[in-house]
Amino acid sequence: MAIAAEPDARMDHFFAGPQTLAKVNRRRRINLVITGDGSPSVILAGGHGCTALSWASVQIALGLSARAVSFDQAGMGFSDPGPLPVTGSAVVEDLRAALRSADIAPPYILVGLSLGGLYMRLFAFKYPQEVVGMVMVDSSSEHQHRRFFGENSAQLAALRRGQLRKMTHLVHLARAGALVPGAPEFDALVRAASQPMQLTPAVEAARNSQLASAARWRAMRSEMSVAGVISFEQVAAARRPLGDMPLIVLSAGREVGEAVPDETPEQARSRVETWRIMHEEIASLSTRGERRVVDARHQIQIDKPEAVVAAIEEVLAMVRIERSTD
Asked: Phi first, then psi: what are they for 63, rounded to 5°?
């Protein structure tokens, strides 16, 4: 399936402003982007720093073949800021509350990119009765940093310190109103957030406004600070077999994570092999789990959205056949 590279006018409706602001409690709302119709609903969870916009090509391509729901985590996109720390359990509970508020009942097919894959597995482990299928998109794994670098790695410590310093700096700039077009830090962020799909002017303006938000960088800093400890532990503690649930794991064939300070070529090769092994382990959670390599970078849903759409449609077909024969 070919995905159009030109801006799609429908993007303005779905991604230039909030679409469905679903209440999670009296004070907070989570923005849901809902497309299509039918059951089961396909829930799309982005990676660290990603908003619903990262799923635009996938949602538009799915069209009316399924009801698809992407969302902005608390403090991200058009969602209200939430309490800190941003743990996996907090993201899952916000999402479930928002889905209930929007009358999007289970069953669900859960799709997760990177850290979003970790969160969607946590969702399935905690609420197995609500989940009938999964697609993991170059997903993170619990304790992956420990497996990449060892228990007391100076490389890992340096990587984390650098990331948190950068986030703290961006929070300060945003609070001061200095994270604006033309500022070196902002322009670097825009380049980092560039996507092969074309954005309409309205969607690009909304994205740039979000990049300048202090709430966004506070949420990202909090999520990063606890992901390798609290969130990983939450998933590891809840881990359970998924029976014969349809499960497809998509692995990026071109890269594994970001550059690591002072990493040797041998360490990089080892990290790639560990990433492959962890994805095989995710697939083995189900007796019908399958891992596939896609010729794409980490954000497969942007590089090769057709591969993600095909995997979702395959899982949908399996689930619908099973439900029709029950």
From this structure: 55, -130
* pLDDT, tens digit (0-9, with 9 covering 90-100), for 7-62: 677 889 999 999 999 999 999 999 999 999 999 999 999 999 999 999 999 999 99
Centre a 10 Å sphere on the Cβ of residue 224 and count the other Cβ atoms it contains. 18
Q: Which of 250, 305, 251, 298 minimizes the C-alpha distance to 58?
A: 305
Amino acid letter for position 74: A
218: tokens are 């506070």
The pTM (predicted TM-score) of the whole model is: 0.94
Identify the burial level of 68 via C-beta atoms within 10 angstroms of its C-beta, where 0-12 means exposed, 13-18 middle and 19 or more buried. Answer: buried
CA angle, corner 291, sides to 108 and 132, nearest 5? Answer: 15
69 beta partners = 34, 43
Burial of 127 (0-12, 13-18, 19+ CB in 10 A): middle
What sign does the CA torsion over 40, 133, 125, 119 have? negative
Please give the DSSP secondary-structure letter assigned to residue 178: -
Cβ–Cβ under 8 Å, residues 113 and 45: yes
Look-up of token digits 């591969």: 307
Distance (Å, whole) CA 134 – CA 129: 13
CB 58 within 8 A of CB 35: no
Using alpha carbons, select from 91, 33, 101, 98 the residue that is nearest to residue 67: 33
